[in-house]
Amino acid sequence: MLVMTGTGTGVGKTITTAAIAALAVAGGQRVAVLKPAQTGVAPDEPGDLADVVRLAGGDVTTRELRRYPDPLSPEAAARRSGLPTLDPGEIARAASDLDTGHDLTLIEGAGGLLVRFDGTGASLADVAWSLGSLVIIVAEAGLGTLNATALTAEVATKRGLTVAGVIIGSWPAEPDLASLSNLEDLPVAAGAPLLGVLPAGLGTASREEFVAAARAGLSPWFGGEFDPELFAGWASAEK
């Protein structure tokens, strides 16, 4: 079981979740993806889980616990809409239920690790702790990502969580100096290895192209072929 969190919104967390799921499915594993709270999406609109199924395949089991129409934190969106909030116990029970019938369960948070689910301040960190799950941090490539990654990792560690690694969720076609430097510095900030780099725009790929890119961009830990040292050398040479 893996808890997927980001250093913020729009960092490529759903694409990264789908990529991990796609490789696991390709390897013959039974995969489930749990999205506790989907915000900013109307009841009849496709959400993040629809993207996961589109990219990773229909064999992936998906479950969404709450959906709120406003693009806010789950707590704020629930308060504004008058819909029920979530608590870590409900999320943990749903994750455990899925995990009993699957080889890999991925839990995708909303935004960062401490985004609030309810008025008590419950967050994805509480879910990860109650499940004893490893945490994957999905980070941005460029300037400012080191501080956000270090803060996320420090909070996780202080709460008794284990950060398994960091993944860059959207690598630019033309990386700048900060992005290239961060290939070396992000693992230091996270206190955990760089487990992958996924190219920007991957969400528009066909399923076959997506699986190939996931294999190239994710660590052997996920069934991929990514080597951080080789990638850093290639990226610098291309620049």
From TrEMBL:
Its main location: cytoplasm. It comes from the Bacteria. Catalyzes a mechanistically unusual reaction, the ATP-dependent insertion of CO2 between the N7 and N8 nitrogen atoms of 7,8-diaminopelargonic acid (DAPA, also called 7,8-diammoniononanoate) to form a ureido ring. The active site is at K35. It is an enzyme of class 6 (ligase). Pathway: Cofactor biosynthesis; biotin biosynthesis; biotin from 7,8-diaminononanoate: step 1/2. Substrate binds at T39. NCBIfam families: bioD. SUPFAM superfamilies: P-loop containing nucleoside triphosphate hydrolases. It comes from Amycolatopsis melonis. It catalyses: (7R,8S)-7,8-diammoniononanoate + CO2 + ATP = (4R,5S)-dethiobiotin + ADP + phosphate + 3 H(+). InterPro entries: DTB_synth_BioD (IPR004472), P-loop_NTPase (IPR027417). Its cofactor is Mg(2+). This is ATP-dependent dethiobiotin synthetase BioD. Mg(2+) binds at T14, D51, E108. The gene is bioD. Coiled coil: none annotated. Gene3D superfamilies: P-loop containing nucleotide triphosphate hydrolases.
